Amino acid sequence: MRHFLIIITLLAACVTQTRAANLEEKVVEHTMKNGMKLLIVERHTSPTVSAWIRFRVGSVDERSDERGIAHLLEHMLFKGTTTLGTKDYAAEKPILDKIENVSLTLMNEKAKRDKADPVKIAGLEKQLASLETDASKYVIKDEFFELYSKNGGTGYNAFTSRDGTTYLISLPSNKLELWAAIESDRLQNAVLREFYTERSVVMEERRRSYDADPESKLWETFLASSFLAHSYGQPTIGWMSDIENLTRSKAEQFFRSYYAPNNAIVAIVGDIDTKTTIAMVERYFGAIKPGKEPPPVTAVEPKQSGERRIELVAEAEPTVIIGFHKPAINTKDDYVFDVINMVLGSGRTSRFYKKLVIEKQIASDIGAFDAPGHRYPSLFVVSANPRAPHSVKEVEEAIQAELDLLKTTPVAERDLQRILNKIEYEEARRMGTNGGLARNLTEYEATTGSWRYMTEHRNKIAEVTTADIMRVAAMYFTRENRTVGFITKKGGDK
Q1: Which residues contact 490 (CB under 8 A, 6 or more apart)?
Q2: Cβ–Cβ < 8 Å for 240, 211
């Protein structure tokens, strides 16, 4: 039986190495003169293609007076260009300029707070509403979406994180040139129309999804308390006062500076011809000038020297979040954390789930993950919901007991092999679709500097030893490196 297991292990390793070698052979890299990086993979299994554009700028790159701007820009870049999303841009533009002037005057007056002139504010708000009504007559709603949809596009979306901003679409492969035409136009000629209307939408999103939701509110406070210096502690959506003070002028400046070819990674995966695709992308994007690179985030989070605890009293189910500072992605100890994550918190076979949910039944749910980003040192986080009548304190102590066990008791070799097998399965699943592969290519190229992190990850994990796990657990899972956030009901026990 032992020899049989050895053979299976060797076969699994060979399959992984073959998959990695195949991907190394299939990914074609092409860097344009303006700095845009193309990652192209031909897959002729279906007549479709996925195209992802990842900009290496996220909320971590925002200055204090720009917080929330990357997320708001994600919304704004669906509004169209000088030719899309408008009936007559020449007539629309003067109204947009007037809206900006009135909005800036209104914001400056409101900034006076108790010294502001309420009559002046009311007049400016009335003038702004009238201008926005005039501008709306020229707007063609969702023209990007309609164009893609009529041509078979699916999954048209975008998302902003602390580490970057991504725009994605899947299309019939014979419609890829439509993508190139639309996205190159957006990159050069985006118009941030309906800016202040959309800013109000984002403010409502903030009220509904963050301020009024106890778990989201706890999460924001937890991160802000975990990072005193580094911008990973600021919310991607921004604080309410941040959003209120964002302007179209500021957003346009941020966009023109950083949403540029030299900060863009494009992955195109599907039923395409590589040489033809490169020529087409060069034709549409090649003349676009490079922009500025976001300034490096120079703030270094000071070493935590004592436990931090955050309590939120709310009419909500008890929740506990525990976080420990950890290194950035692609460092030796980060690979060890990947293993620890899978041992403790990955699925129903993990230690946390088996011990706290099934055996002790003190938690209704529990999970472990890295947050809030990868480019810079981040957090290893455990989140759990106590099962009544058990308390936050009981669950917290049980979690710490499992973390402490890693410091003294070696993880069994069979568990490490199970982790390798699971990683292989997850990697194959994520890369099984065009969109999944395009996402991974852009994500790892942006956060680690090379998409090859994907092909090297499994081998790096295989190098992690039980001694590494014990060392990392002892180094990082300490009281002084711990931040704890929890929700308790009014009048309830902690």
Answers
A1: 313, 314, 315
A2: yes
Phi-psi region of 412 (alpha: psi -120 to 50; beta: other; left: phi over 0): beta
Answer whether 362's CB lies under 8 Å from 387's CB.
yes
Strand partners, 492: none
Question: Which tokens hold the place of 301?
Answer: 């989070």
What are residue 212's phi and psi, to 5 degrees? Answer: -95, 0
Distance of CA 232 to the CA centre of its chain: 12
Residue (of 58, 319, 14, 282) closest to 166 by Cα position: 58
How many Cβ atoms are within 10 Å of 361's Cβ, its own excluded? 10
- Whether 59 and 186 have beta carbons less than 8 Å apart is answered as no
Q: Give the Cα separation of 2 and 415 in Å (integer).
A: 15
Query: Could you give the angle at the alpha carbon of 231 between the alpha carbons of 230 and 232, nearest 5°?
Result: 90
Taking the CA atoms of the chain, what radius of gyration do you get in angstroms? 25
């048209």: which residue's tokens? 156
Contact between 335 and 460 under an 8 Å Cβ cutoff? The reply is: yes
Rounded CA-CA distance 423/412 in Å is 17
Q: Residue 376, exposed/middle/buried by CB under 10 A (0-12, 13-18, 19+)?
A: buried
CA distances from 172 to 181, 304, 437, 442 (A): 15, 51, 17, 21
- 48-55, strands of its sheet edge to edge: 28-31, 37-42, 264-270, 48-55, 165-172, 154-160
pLDDT of the chain, 494 residues: tens digit per residue: 434 333 334 434 444 444 555 888 999 999 999 999 999 999 999 999 999 999 999 999 999 999 999 999 999 999 999 999 999 999 999 999 999 999 999 999 999 999 999 999 999 999 999 999 999 999 999 999 999 999 999 999 999 999 999 999 999 999 999 999 999 999 999 999 999 999 999 999 999 999 999 999 999 999 999 999 999 999 999 999 999 999 999 999 999 999 999 999 999 999 999 999 999 999 999 999 999 999 999 999 999 999 999 999 998 989 999 999 999 999 999 999 999 999 999 888 899 999 999 999 999 999 999 999 999 999 999 999 999 999 999 999 999 999 999 999 999 998 898 888 888 887 777 778 999 999 999 999 999 999 999 889 999 999 999 999 999 999 999 999 999 999 988 766 55
Identify whether the C-beta of residue 200 lies closer than 8 Å to the C-beta of residue 240: no
